[in-house]
Specification:
Blueprint lengths: L16 E4 L17 E5 L11 E4 L8 H9 L3 E5 H4 L11 E4 L5 E2 L4 E2 L20 H12 L4 E4 L32 H25 L7 E3 L10 E2 L2 H8 L5
Parallel strand pairs: 1-2, 1-8, 2-3, 3-4, 4-5, 8-9, 9-10
Antiparallel strand pairs: 6-7
Length: 248
Amino acid sequence: MGLSICQFQNIHKDKLGFLIGSGPSLKDFDKSILDKYVTMTVNSSISYQPNCDYFVSDDWSISNWSYYMRDLAQSDCVKFLYDKKFQGRTFHLKQHQICMFEHTWYFEPRTNKYNMKGLVVHDDCNKPVIGARTSLASGLNILSIMGCNPIVLIGCDCKMNGDKRYFWEYPGYHKPVRLDRRVTVPPSVKIAEGQKQCNDILEYWTLFDKMNKNPPSKIINSTSDSDLKVFEKENLQTVLEKYGERIK
């Protein structure tokens, strides 16, 4: 039997929590800093920090990637997975490490209707996780339920760096591979598609910001190079000077 999200209510009350995206800026980050703090990886950043405490994803398509089948399976972290997207896709994972969660909604494309209240971050494990265009938002809500404060974002670039969108596209990192034999698109198409997805995610965060002027946990963006402007920006040194004693 899997885990319940309520088992994690306030488990890290007032501890510093890092939410790790997979943007190019991670290549310049000293990840040894993370060892003392609560960490949650999102999608492919599991291959950057496999010894994280938690992993989160809403995106079933990651099951087509080697990092989901190999790196996540080898990690002893707790895996938070969106139930409707990952049913039948967890056979390779240790079941006692899986926590399936539910979402509310914020946008219905079939009717073009918005449910803006579905974007409000909360710290109540009995409520579904907020509606999310990006798995990062789900992680933000789950860390809030855990009581992490502040929550610090790293690797959340929300933009391309030249022709690259992910840290693992740079030398020195093990590059994950697709398992579904999808044909690689030309570089020009890849850049256009990547930037469009980044723009869509930035639009989501703009809506999120309108509904979350007083979230339950302080949210800080410490990504070194980021187009995500809705959160307070502080460099990592300042964050650690203020909150560095809040170890797990």
